Amino acid sequence: MESCDRRVRAYRNGRTFDQCRDIAEALNPEFKNIIEYNGKVLWSEILDKVDHDEIVYKLTLKFLRRDGYDIGNWQIPEVKKFS
Q1: If 0-12 CB within 10 Å is exposed, 13-18 middle and 19+ buried, where does residue 4 land?
Q2: Mind listing the pLDDT tens digit for each residue in 59-72?
C-alpha cells in the first residue's frame, strides 16, 4: 500500500507542507498585532496577506484558533479575541 509522503509533496509555488506550516506560524504574530490594534482581522485580509495560498491560509486560521482567537464562521468571516 502506497502512502503520500508529506515531506516531498509540492503545494503551491513548490512548497512542502512543512514549509507552508512555517510560513503560517511566522505570519501569526503580525495578525495578532492587527487583532490587538483593530479588535479583529477579516478573512479576506488574511487571504490577501498569504497571497491566496489556500494551505497557508487554512493553517493560519488553525493556529490563530489554537492560540485562543475566535476565527468566526461563514456568516461572520473575521478573527477576533474571545469575549
Answers
A1: exposed
A2: 999 999 999 999 99
**pLDDT tens string 15-57:** 888 899 999 999 999 999 999 999 999 999 999 999 998 999 9
User: Please, are residues 26 and 67 in contact by the beta-carbon 8 Å criterion?
Assistant: no
Distance CA 76, CA 21 (A): 25
- What is the model's pLDDT at position 16? 86
- With cell 464562521, the residue in question is 73
φ, ψ at 78 (rounded to 5°): -150, 155
Edge-to-edge strand order for the sheet containing 78-81? 40-42, 78-81, 69-70
Residues 6+ apart with CB under 8 A from 42: 77, 78, 79
Alpha-carbon distances, residue 77 vs 4, 29, 49, 73 (angstroms): 32, 19, 15, 6
